[in-house]
Amino acid sequence: MQSRTPASRTGRPRSAAADTAILAATREALVELGWSKLTLSDVATRAGVAKTTLYRRWAGKNELVVDAVAELFDELELPDLGSLAADIEGVVLQFAAILARPEARSGLMAVVAESTRDDALRERIRASIVDRQMRLVLQGRARAQHRGELPPEPDPEQAARTVDLIFDMVAGAVVHRTLVSGKPADGEWVHSFIRVLLLGLVGASRTP
Amino acid sequence: MQSRTPASRTGRPRSAAADTAILAATREALVELGWSKLTLSDVATRAGVAKTTLYRRWAGKNELVVDAVAELFDELELPDLGSLAADIEGVVLQFAAILARPEARSGLMAVVAESTRDDALRERIRASIVDRQMRLVLQGRARAQHRGELPPEPDPEQAARTVDLIFDMVAGAVVHRTLVSGKPADGEWVHSFIRVLLLGLVGASRTP
DNA sequence: AGCTTTCGCTACGAGTCGTAGCGTAATGCC
DNA sequence: GGCATTACGCTACGACTCGTAGCGAAAGCT
Questions:
Q1: Is the CB of residue A136 less than 8 Å from the CB of residue A91?
Q2: Percent of chain B, pLDDT > 70?
Q3: Beta carbon of B187 within 7 Å of strand D?
Q4: Which residues in chain A show pLDDT less than 50?
Q5: CATH assignment of B16-57?
Q6: Of A93, A157, A196, B28, which alpha carbon lies 20 to 30 A from A24's?
Q7: B196 near A169, Cβ under 8 Å?
Q8: Across the interface, do B176 and A181 touch by the CB < 8 Å criterion?
Q9: Nearest nucleotide (C1') to alpha carbon of A45
Q10: Residue of B nearest to A124 (CA)
Q11: How far is A16 from chain B (nearest CA, A)?
């Protein structure tokens, strides 16, 4: 979050209710107005707080939207459905459901675009959104290796590269399908995609 | 392009030099300022034209940037390197080189984000950017089937789904690697990626 | 109590937007 | 050549947003 309240203990504390109201108002404004027409004055009005309160907590529109969108990914969890393919399909369908929501569609791509020119923003996105997804990949891979569905990776550097590759392939394909092609990442599509991905990974691990 | 000059033949024609100057100035402004701080007044000054000229040709910032970025993808071609894997690696490296340029990074994602709320803009992006990439996938697939590297697809509906899937996987992975993960899609990464992709596609086509 | 920080409110200069109006320049048609 | 038509450069405009400053009141802690 944006709060930096580890040391300062004295004085009136910041309203936690205002935080949730502001983030909810931001998502509401994203749905109705989209990224470019969203103004902080409008968000403040919707949340029932003063505009100055927004500027005390967030540096600008970018940081606010990152936090508002990041909360959407809180629900993301790796289910245990018995097989690697089923687990991945489950989590990818969750991911696709989040990306189908208009507040995620219009907000996420916009802040990613901004982050190409702002390293601090890129780091904020990595910490609050991307890392959580990456953790799911690591978790699923470890579970699959324990089950014997994927071979163990002795070289840690090679393992890191493989995890990065899987992550970019999964997240990239779902995002591109949803936001660029504009078609739904439904059950049928996810099933085909995961089949190709797993066959490729297993095949690549057999012939190094 | 934005020109609609099929019927109107009389009157002073639009300066073609102004078009190229404006689009070049737009890319220059994208590099220096990024999407959010780019203003049409600034572009007009850089291009040496009046601001009103910009508004006569483009509806707004979105449409202008789409056209400016689209020109970057003109150079994209499918090389003939003897094998499907080599061909794909070649074109993916071209694609990655374009995405590595700052004017593409900051511009492309921004207009895609805007297009989630603007169907006309989405269609413009599809026609001027996405379709060209899709054609490369079709071309490569046909050539590979002719070589026998990929099995022929009797069902046209199934073939269309497969092409869509390949397109989202390739473009999505490269874009995600470059813009979200922030790491270069260099030769080593592309090689690993294509290997997984092709092994998966061949494997999936064998066990339908 | 006293101290500290946050809150809501108002106001402000600076900057951008998109458009209108004007006189001038460059074409095609007669 | 003259005429209609369209594009161009320029200026100016109201409306809007931005981010900040200053104020008095409120809400905690010691």
A1: yes
A2: 96
A3: no
A4: 1-7
A5: 1.10.10.60
A6: A93
A7: yes
A8: no
A9: C8
A10: B180
A11: 30
Residue A105 half-sphere exposure toward CB, CA atoms < 13 A:
24
> For an interface test with B, which of A32, A36, A38 has the most B Cβ atoms less than 10 Å from its Cβ?
A36
Task: Tell me the pLDDT tens digit for each residue of B117-129.
Answer: 999 999 999 999 9
List every span in chain A annotated with CATH 1.10.357.10: 75-206
CA of B41 to C1' of C17 (A): 10
**Nearest nucleotide over every DNA/RNA strand to the B51 CA, judged by C1':** D9
Is strand D in 7 Å reach of the CB of A55?
yes
Collect all residues of chain A within an 8 Å Cβ-Cβ radius of residue B165. 189, 192-193, 196
Chain A CB contacts of B180 under 8 Å are 112, 125, 130, 168, 171-172
* Candidate from A107-111, B177-181, B204-208 with smallest mean pLDDT: B204-208
* Domain B72-206 superfamily per CATH: Tetracycline Repressor, domain 2 (1.10.357.10)
Residue labelled with tokens 């529109």: A61
Q: Looking at chain A, how many residues does it have?
A: 208
Give the distance from CA A175 to its chain's centroid.
11
Using one digit for the tens of pLDDT, what is the confidence trace for B76-100?
999 999 999 999 999 999 999 999 9
Residue B140 Cα, gap to closest chain A Cα (Å) = 18
| pLDDT reading at B2 higher than 60 | no
Nearest-by-Cβ selection for B113 from A35, A195, A203: A35
Superfamily of domain A16-69 in the CATH hierarchy: Homeodomain-like (1.10.10.60)
pLDDT, position A6: 44
Could you check: is the Cβ of residue B48 within 7 Å of any atom of nucleic acid strand D? yes
CB < 8 Å to B172, chain A:
169, 171-177, 180
Domain with CATH 1.10.10.60 in chain A: 16-69
Tokens of B59: 């509806």
CA atoms within 13 A on the CB side of A44: 15
Which residues of chain B does CATH 1.10.357.10 include?
Answer: 72-206
pLDDT one-digit tens code per residue, B141-172 = 999 999 998 888 889 999 999 999 999 999 99
Nearest C-alpha neighbor of B190 from the set B87, B47, B81, B54: B87
A75-206 — its CATH code?
A: 1.10.357.10
User: What pLDDT, on a 0 to 100 scale, did the predictor assign at position A203?
Assistant: 94
Query: So what's the pLDDT on residue B143?
Result: 94
What's the sign of the alpha-carbon dihedral B78, B79, B81, B87? Answer: negative
Q: Straight-line distance from CA A50 to C1' C9, in Å?
A: 8
